[in-house]
Amino acid sequence: MIEFRPLVSSDIGEAVKLWEACELTRPWNDPVADAERALGGPCSTIIGAFAAGHLIGTAMTGWDGHRGWIYYLGVDKDFRRWGIGRKLILHCEEWLGQFGAPKIQLMVRSENDAAARFYEAIGYEEDSFRLFYRRLGRSRSQSIRPAVIRGTKSGKS
């Protein structure tokens, strides 16, 4: 039997191992810090799927005040095609329902066609927009270029 429940902080190490096995981590992100932030916030959590007490799937979810988001959906390769990913998404949707989320979004890396097919198969639609980001923590001079303001002919702006 598969049990679904929110993770607790003692589950983080096992979650990170799963994310690494599912190739969800990236060198520029700290998955432990991501998990700690998700579990420490009032508007986010990580839903886990457990078989015989072992973590076999996760989905991180959060509410930003405008829409729901899902991240780190991953299922152990030995348990794929059992409907666990779909159930994790349903648990996220139910959890986000407490906030009245009118829409849920997620991001899929452009090279991950299998994930895109999965989301389409469970009723998610692909949108067309561009994603912009900035990493915080750099000095202001490294992250923001000063604007050039051009004045009028008289030299006044």
From TrEMBL:
<keyword id="KW-0012">Acyltransferase</keyword>
<feature type="domain" description="N-acetyltransferase">
    <location>
        <begin position="2"/>
        <end position="145"/>
    </location>
</feature>
<dbReference type="InterPro" id="IPR000182">
    <property type="entry name" value="GNAT_dom"/>
</dbReference>
<keyword id="KW-0808">Transferase</keyword>
<protein>
    <submittedName>
        <fullName>GNAT family acetyltransferase</fullName>
        <ecNumber>2.3.1.-</ecNumber>
    </submittedName>
</protein>
<dbReference type="InterPro" id="IPR050832">
    <property type="entry name" value="Bact_Acetyltransf"/>
</dbReference>
<dbReference type="InterPro" id="IPR016181">
    <property type="entry name" value="Acyl_CoA_acyltransferase"/>
</dbReference>
<dbReference type="GO" id="GO:0016747">
    <property type="term" value="F:acyltransferase activity, transferring groups other than amino-acyl groups"/>
</dbReference>
<dbReference type="Pfam" id="PF00583">
    <property type="entry name" value="Acetyltransf_1"/>
</dbReference>
